[in-house]
Design a protein that fits this description.
Strand content: 5-15%
Number of helices: 9
Radius of gyration: 18 Å
Low-confidence stretches: none
Largest sheet: 8 strands, parallel
CATH superfamily: Metal-dependent hydrolases
CATH architecture: Alpha-Beta Barrel
CATH class: Alpha Beta
Mean pLDDT: 94
Number of domains: 1
Strand order of the largest sheet: 1-2-3-4-5-6-7-8
Shape: globular
Helix content: 40-55%
Structural class: alpha/beta
Bound molecules: zinc ion
């Protein structure tokens, strides 16, 4: 049996210097229909002003439009301050300017959210992300500040009814429960809290009500097949395709989600569940 419904990759980056539209075409050639394009900052020089954030986001929106017009895929867009870029900026500014540097970093984070929210209000972007916490060991000061700003963003998401795509530290026992508790405290609908780069155990008992977006390397299939029936709200599939010309083979390629979808079906996963992953869940979380 071959699945011929929609196929969505929930976390995909594009780079004009990478394969760019060719990457979208490879995805489409094997059955892909929809991308969630996530903004990727220029890590060597992330924006430092409100206007800088706007300009950087506008380029991602422009790439999304080209994929729609020239390739014919459905594209939803996620904009926001990548936690890695932000934490590095924070470390640098604090070491240079102390308290003033900290204030500057907070203000810049808020500007990056504000600029993203404007594009959401205009109907051009569909979620804020990737936001979260550094995925490498940092000082307590940076950890605490990252959490404070994450709480603030969750509060905003709750008020606006917005989805968030989270990028957090690697797997620890506390990660899901801590995120769920923070989001509930801010009044968020946990189903709209999407954990990018999620491990393949999608049981509710494990995810605590968040929506997992499973990074679908080959090794993820077995656990996903074992646990998928115990995910009440369902799950996304993603590659985190980087389109990085310097590391072309470093991550999962653009064809991976369509390929895994067929493999899941062949392994006995219901067509209805794949329909939820690729169509009903994205519509619920991000809107049409
Ligand atoms: Zn990413």
């Amino acid at each position: 049996m071959v699945y011929d419904g929609p196929i969505l990759d929930n976390h995909f980056h594009l780079n004009r210097k990478g394969l760019y539209l060719e990457a979208a075409r490879s995805f489409q050639r094997v059955g892909g229909t929809d991308l969630v394009l996530v903004h990727c900052p220029d890590f060597s020089a992330p924006p430092e002003t409100l206007e800088g954030h706007r300009t950087a986001y506008a380029d991602t929106l422009d790439m999304a439009q080209s994929v729609r017009d020239e390739v014919g895929l459905g594209v939803r867009v996620v904009l926001g301050p990548h936690p890695a870029a932000f934490a590095h900026q924070f470390e640098r500014w604090v070491s240079e300017d102390g308290e003033a540097g900290k204030e500057r970093a907070i203000e810049n984070y808020r500007h990056s959210i504000e600029a993203a929210l404007d594009f959401v209000h205009e109907g051009q972007a569909h979620a804020i992300g990737e936001v979260g916490r550094p995925h490498w060991p940092v000082s307590d000061e940076i950890w605490d500040l990252s959490n404070e700003l994450l709480d603030e963003t969750m509060h905003l998401a709750a008020q606006e009814g917005l989805p968030l795509q989270l990028h957090v530290e690697g797997e620890s026992e506390d990660t899901y429960p801590d995120l769920a508790q923070r989001a509930l405290r801010q009044g968020m609908d946990l189903r709209k809290l999407v954990r990018h780069y999620s491990p393949p155990d999608v049981r509710d008992a494990h995810t605590h009500g968040l929506t997992p977006s499973v990074l679908c390397g080959k090794g993820a299939l077995e656990t996903l097949i074992e646990t998928h029936r115990m995910a009440k709200n369902g799950f996304f599939l993603e590659t985190d395709y980087m389109d990085d010309p310097r590391r072309p083979g470093a991550v999962l390629g653009p064809k991976t989600v369509p390929k895994r979808t067929q493999q899941l079906l062949a392994a006995g996963v219901d067509e209805d569940i794949m329909w939820n992953t690729h169509s009903a869940l994205p519509t619920f979380v991000y809107g049409e």
